[in-house]
Write a structure and sequence with these properties.
about 475 residues; 18 helices; alpha+beta; 11 strands; Arc Repressor Mutant, subunit A; 434 Repressor (Amino-terminal Domain); about 45% helix; 6-stranded mixed β-sheet
């Protein structure tokens, strides 16, 4: 049984199931028997180029996606997990991890779930001890439900066609001059559902962003919010009233470890639908192509925020109108990643912060300005990355806002279609920024910013000699 055949077979099976197609249906379209398709999906039969072409057409996926060697996100998640000090004496290398991901991806996913569960239980114990003792013990507690949301979005490639269809149909009902305004959504909620939308200033002692009273048919929206956020919430409220069945159908296809993570994913899908209403797929896609993904211009075109545009750009995965495969992440000044999604192939860490050389952190040194860079991974892959800070929080004098950084990027081969690459010299190797994923999984031994020893290499501290970091003697 070839490792490559096993891996391709698993991808075909996963995509077929995601589309709700039976083996019998697909085998008829491919003019092969169901038993032969079963052998292909089990990795027990070789797949020729003609069959790969047929499969890619029937399942709506690129041949390169079927045949690429590893799930980079799963690989990185497992690298992060096994980079824990708990496994330090096992001498597990990055090659061992890659082999497991390529040959047994389901086992790899199971290990990541076990790791999540272990860390959550460990942190629950820490929290209980903190509550009992009144002492602060650990500041590194992660929001695991948030990580599950990222997994859910990643598994669906951040594209939900039924919600896109719902949003497009709704857009056609209320659009004016090819745009949707906050007032028009509010008027729809009143005319269709008898819901009154009220913009109010919340009580300082009980601040909120939005509140919906189903019994009184009142939707309160805080004046602490920007108009862009109000518009998104109004769109999400429409989805909550009219697209819950569609959303529940998507949620039922994923195995959630807790009710909390499932509810948080539902919120994510409601916001997804809200964004699809104010930035409808076809119109948004056409503007992205026309303006070469100029985020600032797209902000003005659709009257939305920088973060909303960046997030929406990653959703353009309709096979008939497919955008550039981007990655996106959001981080605070402490390096905590609160959003992560990657179609570009770049690896984003699951636990802890990313490499300090990523320009998402450099953006904090020049708030409000877009920082563009060519980032080069240790395996030679290059990405055009942009980053800019955004403010989040209560819009009121005397209230301090949170500063976050939004990162967006794609493979360098798409540079000609990405306007921010125009200011970069793609042929100048000296201008490239060497980056890794994080210190534990990075094999760059010439990095002055290394904070931890690499997972794949043994090290010894030389008292008489030190390289550019304490973990490098040469």
């Amino acid at each position: 049984m070839s490792q490559i055949n096993l891996q391709i077979g698993h991808k075909i099976k996963t995509k077929r199931r995601k589309l709700g197609i039976s083996q019998l249906e697909l085998s008829k379209k491919l003019s092969i028997s169901p038993s032969y398709l079963n052998l292909i999906e089990s990795g027990k039969r070789k797949i020729n180029v003609d069959m790969l072409l047929k499969l890619s057409n029937e399942l709506g996926i690129e041949m390169s996606d079927i045949s690429k060697k590893a799930d980079t996100n799963l690989y990185q998640n497992l690298m992060d997990l096994l980079g824990d000090n708990l496994f330090e004496n096992l001498d597990i290398t990055n090659f061992d991890i890659k082999d497991l991901v390529e040959t047994n991806p389901l086992i790899a996913k199971a290990l990541v779930k076990l790791g999540d569960n272990y860390k959550k239980r460990n942190q629950d114990i820490v929290s209980k001890v903190e509550n009992i003792s009144g002492k602060f013990i650990d500041s590194r507690k992660n929001s695991f439900p948030g990580e599950v949301v990222s997994d859910f979005l990643q598994e669906n490639e951040n594209y939900f066609p039924k919600l896109e269809e719902f949003a497009s149909n709704f857009f056609e009902k209320i659009q004016s001059n090819n745009r949707v305004g906050y007032t028009s959504i509010c008027e729809y909620l009143f005319n269709k559902h008898s819901i009154v939308v009220k913009d109010v200033v919340p009580d300082e002692k009980k601040p909120f962003t939005k509140q919906f009273d189903d019994r009184k048919k009142i939707f309160l929206v805080s004046d602490y919010l920007t108009l862009e956020t109000k518009k998104l919430y109004a769109g999400a409220q429409v989805a909550q009233l009219e697209a819950t069945k569609i959303i529940d159908e998507y949620l039922s296809s994923f195995s959630f470890p807790s009710e909390e993570s499932k509810k948080l994913s539902k919120v994510a899908l409601l916001n997804y639908a809200g964004a699809a209403i104010i930035m409808p797929y076809k119109l948004f896609y056409e503007e992205c192509i026309k303006q070469r993904y100029d985020v600032e211009l797209l902000q003005n075109t659709f009257a939305v925020s920088f973060e909303q545009v960046a997030h929406r750009i990653t959703c353009l995965q309709n096979p008939q109108m497919k955008g550039i495969p981007f990655h996106m992440l959001r981080s605070d000044v402490a390096g905590n990643i609160s959003k992560r999604f990657s179609l570009s192939g770049i690896e984003i860490p699951r636990y802890g912060g990313a490499c300090p050389r990523w320009n998402i952190y450099k953006a904090f040194t020049m708030p409000g300005k877009i920082n563009a860079a060519v980032s080069k991974m240790s395996n030679g892959d290059k990405y055009v990355c942009i980053a800019r800070t955004v403010e989040k929080g209560i819009g009121k004098h005397g209230m301090e806002k949170t500063l976050l950084s939004i990162g967006l990027g794609c493979q360098v081969k798409y540079a000609k279609d990405f306007v921010y690459a125009d200011s970069l010299n793609l042929n100048d190797k000296k201008s490239e920024t060497p980056i890794g994923v994080n210190c534990r999984t990075c094999d760059r031994m010439d990095c002055q910013q290394r904070a931890f020893p690499p997972l794949h290499k043994k090290f010894d501290i030389d008292l008489n000699k030190r390289g550019i970091s304490v973990y490098v003697a040469d």
